[in-house]
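Writing this down once: the sequence line spells out the residues, with the fold written below as integer tokens. I am pasting one below:
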Amino acid sequence: MAEHKTAPYTFVKSGVFYFSRRVPKDLEHHYYSSRISFSLKTRSRSVAASRARHAARQLDDFWYHLRIQDNDLPGKHILRTKVVGAYPSATACASSPATVTLSEAIGIYVRLKGHGRPASFREFAERFCGYVIDVCGDKDIMSYTKADANAVRDALIERQLAGSTIARVLGAVRAVINFAASEIGVEMVNPFGKVYYDRTAGTSERKPLPLDTIRQLQAASRELDDEVRWLLALVSDTGMRLAEAAGLLREDLRVDAPIPHVVIQEHPWRRLKTKGSARTVPLVGASYWAANRVLAHETGSEFAFPRYNTDEATKANAASTALNKWMKSFVPAGCTLHSFRHSMRDRLRGVECPADIVDQIGGWQTEGVGQSYGKGYPLQVLAKWMQAAA
């Protein structure tokens, strides 16, 4: 049985990896067979390599203690228990579950769940799990303890990260470990679950923009009349998330339809936050003006906002930085571009728009099983309330 080039002590049978290692000559008298072989229960080369290394380390440790037992150890005759009783049996070594390190778990998670995701999916998984590796080391995922999880929490607090950011970090670590454990078929209690910390620490309430401020920004956008301001105006009277608007195609803007509207749908370069984020929103007020200006400006690009898009990704962070910097002199403290979204909800409340229509316009999740039935409100109903809010 030849040793696999990239997975030591393994061979493949019917596509499944098996562990195989010869018992050292000086220890054969402890065994019924001269070779230890068992299935690693995986078809993945990387997982097999990790499990094989883990099993080999266990055997090396056990064999070391067997050799000590066989030696003429000084004082051996007065030991309270036999030396061999303090160590796991060879059978236990061979049959105990082999797992993966956290860095290997990241690879499994990204490879299987990262298909079609933006580059940030891998970056966040590596960065957040990197905090754990920095504090506790790159250990077997079964070896992390609640003390390790608490140490990571304390390190994040010491970095002065906001409670919401700590929640994202620990949530990502939990997801990576849980997914990897499920994939390799081991059961465990994830120590990164139920870690206490103040989720409100360092966070500030996102405030809606006053209506007169919205009007000022819309007027200034009409005056400057450029791509950056078209993006702001489009967001201002639709309540779209910035990334949703920045990643639009020109063809997503339907200004010549009987009811002008924008189609918010997933694109390869820009994923949507949730399944319910895919929707159609009427174009009214400043947003209708902005959509017409985008389509009237011929760029030769299929993107509505080419400066913020490539075939691989929408650069929403760059758009956010530029617009928040420009808005700073107009808006009250604590308000940002995302405040348009909060304001839209308040504006719709102000005209007594039903809550489920508000949710459909903004792409917010609506509670209740019944809300998932049907296709939602027709465009003309949404347009009535959007016109009233504008």
